[in-house]
Design brief:
Two copies of one chain form a homodimer. With about 325 residues, the first copy, chain A, is an alpha+beta fold. Chain A contains nine helices and 14 strands.
C-alpha cells in the first residue's frame, strides 16, 4: 500500500505561490522557465529596429480596492511605471486590461479609472489600449487590473543585477513597510495614521541618471519586502550583501501595526521605495540627489565578494544573521 | 415620494458589459473615454523614435479552460497576436500576466503554459515578461490570463476603419461561429464534431500585404460575432455595408448547436477568422491569396455611401434587414 502524504499541497497552487517569496520563485522555476525556455524578467529589454525598448507587465488584485494613500487604479499605474523605472527606462505607454466581477459598482469603477488617469498624467504617460472582461458574480466586489508598459531606455549602461560589484554601496530611498501595513490596517479596521507609500519612481531615477551616477542596479521591494528583494539580487549577482539593520528606517505607525499583527517590516511590501547599487565613490552624490525626493535616503549596506551569495544583516547589538526569502504567505493580495 | 425603478441594473456592471456588444460600447463611452480622454483601440499605433510600433492588450477568462481546438493558453497567445495582425503589424513580443485561484491544479497550469509556448513558437513570437498573482479560492478551478503584445507595422498605408471606402469589397476568410459554439458544446456536454477555429492570423495578413493588395481595413469578429464587428466598422467608417447572407458560410455542426441553444451564428464569437475591406479591383487577388489558407474565403458584401452608417443584410428570399450590435449577453466568457 502506498500512502501519499500532503500530495494536495504539492499539486495545487496556494496563496504562498503569489507571495513573491520562495514558493513564487519555485513556481517560476518549475513551470515558466521550462515552458518558455527562459526566466521572464520584470522588465524585458527589447531591441526593435535599433531602439532599446523596455516592456513589462503586472496584474493588480489588491484588497481592499481603496486604501489610505491610493487605490487599485493608482497602484496599477505606478506599479508598472516603477517596473520600467527600475530598468532605467522612461515610461511612455500603458495598456490596461480590466477583469470585472458582475455586480461591481459603476461608481467604484469610475473612481478607479479616474485614479488611473490622474496617476498616468502625473507621470506624463499615456494609457493607449485597453480591454474589459466581465466574469460571473462570486459575492466579492472585485476587480482585477493588468497594466503592461512600454518605456525607452534612458541609461547608457545597463541597470541590472549582473552589474552589481563588490564594493558597491546599497542605498535605500526611504522608510519601509508603509504599503503593506496600510493595506493590513485598512483590512483590520485599525485607526492608525498610516498611508501607503504608493508613488511613481521615475523622477528620482531620472535625476540619478542625469547626475551621471553610474547606477549598477535598481529594484523596488514590493511583494516579499526588502529582505526578499535583497536575497534575490544577491543570488542573481552571486555576491554577498552586508546590511546594517539600524540604518533601515521604519516609521512608528508601521512598527506598531507590525507588532500587533506579528509581521516583520523587512518582509512587508513597499510601492514607492527602491534600493540602488552604486559605486562607493558616488554614494554621497546619490544620497544628495535622492534627498530632493525623500526625507531619509540611507546607505544601508555594502556588497562583498566573500560569504557566498548571501545577505547578512547586523543588528545594533552587534549580532548578525542571514536573511532569507519570504517563506509562505505573509501578505496576500497587497498589490 | 420618489420610486427608483431598476436602479440596481443601472448602477452595477453586468455580464452584458463584457459581451462585446452594445453595453460594452456604452461602458467604454461612459467610463473610459471621459477618463482617458480618448477611445482605447484594440491596437494602438505608437511612434517610438521613428519606429511604427503597435501595442495591444487582452485578458482571457474563457470557461471551460480546455475545449476542442485549444485552451485558454492557445487563445491568450493567438488572440493577442491577432489583434496585432488586424492592424497590419507583425507580432514580435508578448507579455503574460496570470491571475490564478488558490487550489488551481498545477497539472492544468503546466498544460496551459505549454500551449502558450507552442502557440508563440508557431508564430515566431517571444513571451518575454510575465507576472503571477494568486487570489483566494472561490471554488471554481479558475485562471485568468492577460497577454499584451508588441508588433511592428508591416503595411505602408494604415489599415484602419477610416480607410474603408465606398465600393470596397468585404471579404470573409472562412466559415463562422466555430469558437463560440465549440465552447458552448463543451459546456453543455454535447457530443458533436466541432472544434474552435482558434488560430493565428498573421500569415494570411502578411500574404495579402506581400501581394501588394491595398488592404483598407481588417477585423477579426470575436466577441459579438460578425454582425457586431460589421456594425462597429460601419459606424466608424460612416458608410453602409450591404451583406449577402447566403455568402456567409456556416458549417453544419455550428448550425446544429446554434439551433439547439437558440443562438444566431452571426453573433457567435470566432477566434480564427477575419474580414478584409479591399478595393473591388483587388478582390479576386485577395480571394486567391486567402485560398492558400482557407477553404472558402468569400466576398460577402460591398460598401456604399448611401443608407447612412448601417449594415443591411439580404437573405436568399430577397428580403433585407438591418443588423445591430449584440444586445445583452449571448455568450459569457468565451475568450
Amino acid at each position: 500500500m502506498c500512502v501519499l502524504v500532503g500530495t494536495e499541497d504539492k499539486e495545487v497552487i496556494t496563496l504562498a505561490h503569489g507571495s513573491g517569496g520562495k514558493q513564487t520563485a519555485r513556481l517560476i522555476d518549475e513551470f515558466f522557465v521550462p515552458a518558455f525556455h527562459k526566466e521572464l524578467h520584470d522588465g524585458a529589454l527589447l531591441n526593435i529596429s535599433g531602439q532599446n525598448i523596455v516592456f513589462t507587465t503586472d496584474s493588480y488584485v489588491v484588497q481592499p480596492l481603496f486604501f489610505p494613500g491610493g487605490d487599485i487604479g493608482t497602484l496599477a499605474v505606478n506599479g508598472t511605471i516603477n517596473d520600467l523605472a527600475m530598468c532605467g527606462a522612461k515610461p511612455l505607454y500603458l495598456s490596461c486590461g480590466f477583469i470585472i466581477e458582475e455586480g461591481f459598482l459603476k461608481s467604484d469603477l469610475q473612481r478607479i479609472v479616474q485614479s488611473m488617469q490622474q496617476a498616468a498624467e502625473t507621470c506624463g504617460v499615456s494609457i493607449v489600449t485597453g480591454d474589459t472582461k466581465v466574469v460571473e458574480r462570486t459575492g466579492a466586489n472585485n476587480i482585477f487590473i493588468n497594466t503592461s508598459g512600454i518605456g525607452i531606455l534612458m541609461s547608457e549602461k545597463a541597470i541590472h543585477p549582473a552589474r552589481i560589484e563588490s564594493g558597491d554601496c546599497i542605498v535605500l530611498s526611504g522608510d519601509i513597510g508603509r504599503h503593506g501595513m496600510a493595506i493590513m490596517a485598512a483590512r483590520e479596521g485599525f485607526s492608525v495614521d498610516l498611508k501607503s507609500d504608493c508613488a511613481p519612481l521615475f523622477d528620482p531615477v531620472q535625476v540619478l541618471i542625469q547626475a551621471e551616477i553610474d547606477v549598477h542596479c535598481l529594484r523596488d521591494p514590493t511583494r516579499g519586502g526588502l529582505a526578499t528583494t535583497l536575497v534575490e539580487l544577491a543570488e542573481q549577482a552571486k555576491l554577498s550583501f552586508h546590511i546594517e539593520e539600524e540604518k533601515i528606517e521604519v516609521s512608528s505607525p508601521v512598527k506598531s501595526v507590525c507588532e500587533v499583527l506579528g509581521f516583520d517590516p523587512l518582509y512587508v511590501a513597499n510601492e514607492g521605495r527602491f534600493v540602488a547599487f552604486v559605486p562607493e565613490s558616488q554614494a554621497a552624490k546619490t544620497l544628495k540627489s535622492l534627498s530632493e525626493f525623500y526625507e531619509k535616503p540611507a546607505i544601508i549596506g555594502h556588497v562583498h565578494n566573500r560569504s557566498g551569495d548571501r545577505v547578512i544583516i547586523n543588528n545594533a547589538l552587534g549580532t548578525s544573521r542571514y536573511l532569507h526569502r519570504l517563506v509562505g504567505d505573509q501578505l496576500p493580495r497587497i498589490c
